[in-house]
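User: Hello! I'm new to structural biology and keep hearing that structure can be predicted from sequence alone. Could you demonstrate with procollagen-proline 4-dioxygenase? Please show me the input and the output so I can see what each looks like.

Assistant: Of course. The first part below is the input, the amino acid sequence of procollagen-proline 4-dioxygenase. The second part is the output, the predicted structure written as tokens.
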Amino acid sequence: MVMVMVMVESGGASWMNEAAGGGADGGVGGGGGDTVFTSTNNLPILAELEGELVSHLEDFLTNTQHRLDIISRYVSEYKEELGGRFQDTDTENGKEKFETNEPRLRGNFSEQQNIINSKEDDDEEEKKFGAGVKGDKEWSVTERSFHPVSSFLLLRRLAVDWSDVEKTLQVLLSSTRGVVREVGGAITRSGVKLPVPSDLHVSALALVRLQYTYDLDLTSLKNGTILTPARGQLLHEEIHDGGQLRCQDCLYLSKVAMSEGHLPQASDWLRIAQEATHHEPNSAAVRKDILTYQNVVHKLRNTEEELKRQAAEETIRHTHQSQENQEKEENDNENEELKESNQNATLTQKDHEEEVEVEVNEAEDHERYLRLCRGEQLMSSSEVSQLVCRLARPSPSHHLLAPLLVEEVSHRPHIVLIHHFLTRNQTRRLAAAATPKLEESRHRGPEGGFVISSVRTSKTAWLRDNTLEAENNTDDDRDRGLNETGDAMGRFLRQLTRRIEAATRLHALLPSAAEDYQVASYGVGGMYKAHSDYLMTSTDQTLYTEWERHIGDRLATFLIYLSEVGGGGATVFPRAGVGVWPQQGTAVLWWNLDAAGRGDPNTWHAACPVIYGTKWICNKWVHYNDQFLRHSCGLHPTDKITFP
Ligand SMILES: O=C(O)CCC(=O)C(=O)O
Ligand SMILES: [Fe+2]
């Protein structure tokens, strides 16, 4: 897939123009500042708020409609009085404009005036008084005012009706101020920021991502129905009515898909947009826009095809060349190799295995990621048949009466599920403690500092459990809400860590042994791109802080699902061929490092985008160096760790 950033002029609404550019400050995927969309937490609040706003507007309309009627009646009467020849609107430039100030002179009257006055005077007169109708001739407003009935009506309107109009305007003004105040108050009380175009961009990215990842049927999606791939079934009976996307929405989504480099999806959205224009009035401008984009997408798709073809040719050339070189080298070294072969047979085989293990094929990883997210089974049945589910007692003192229900989901690397590790109440408690601290997820940027993540679209919070920090809590800690270690929550977290220690037979309570709890909440479309949890991949140790070198890398990941997910949101391991579907209270445990502390590339994993609802998880990363008393290095440094 080729990433293409395209800016194309759009004739549509102003929010449309931000689609292809990556969102004003939202950025692609992650959003800048505190985006509304990365966590679904805000969405129900916004939905409630919108309901409240509409009800304020309804009240406003009810209160003001009859007042607008008074004004409307006044204007109509005035126009009627002028004999129905009053030209009231001018649609030139698409703008409606009342002409009460500048009615035009027409017919004989203007000719007579021409005889008497100069052209300039005439123009002046024309501006001041305008014209009326006299028989089949036009009268000036002045002339008309000399008519007794007309003058009576004029005075009636201005002496009586106008004061009504003025009062009405005053009432309207105060009602308008009132509704503005109420609306503002409702927004403030809701505690959320209103979304801005960059939020819309992030939401569109989510929709495009969902459609791409799960290969969702576009026509259904346009009608608010999510059909799952392959099986073509509804995701959920009860959530099939998400509302209708309009042609302009589909065009916007096409632009976003294009900006993400998903060209086939961009074409599909354009097709749907075009179909929609047939059923929507006033869609001529959008139709024109669609045509422009169709050309752009078409050209980009051709370019992409050409690049792919060239890359394929290059790969074939490269493969031939390496084969020739290898054959030549093999011939040269044949004799020497024969000599050494007996001696090193075992070692060579082992090294070869290691090499194969770390060979990375990004395209294949991605393909397997998509298939796993879509619920496909990638393990062979013989591999699956070797996985077991059992009751385990890793620490007999803890698990004698309550053994852990352990289900193996992969042997290479060793990944297990520990079912019912937390109760529903405990998961809710963790999520509730994290909620006020949630912040846009960050990751280490190219300049070393932490940046808002486009790799992970979620919100995260840290919960501290270790006692050492509790004693040393600083004012700054307290300001940041990190002082709960001494209270009930702190006790609960420490107990939880002890249970993790018992399950993993690792140290996890000291700050040097494990990180604080990281709680993450993913909203609709929220995901975490494929990554490994171990971080210290460079041999250049100076890249790491003293503390990082002291505690070592992340040996184990203990991930607890704090919620179920309405649709999507699996944790997938493309190289292991495993997908884990969140179950509230279940923990996933895997070993990121081998016995010697080297990262295991087969732990490469991702969080698939959430299709419906919210996903909550809680991570505990246990580090390597503190485990030296608990955890043997094994007989061979590349031994994999496989308990409980
Ligand atoms: O959310 C998930 O399923 C995976 C999260 C993850 O990989 C992480 O937090 O490092
Ligand atoms: Fe991870």
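User: So the tokens describe the shape?

Assistant: Right, they're a compact way of writing down the 3D structure. Reading them back into a model, for example: Residues 284-358 form the longest helix (75 residues).
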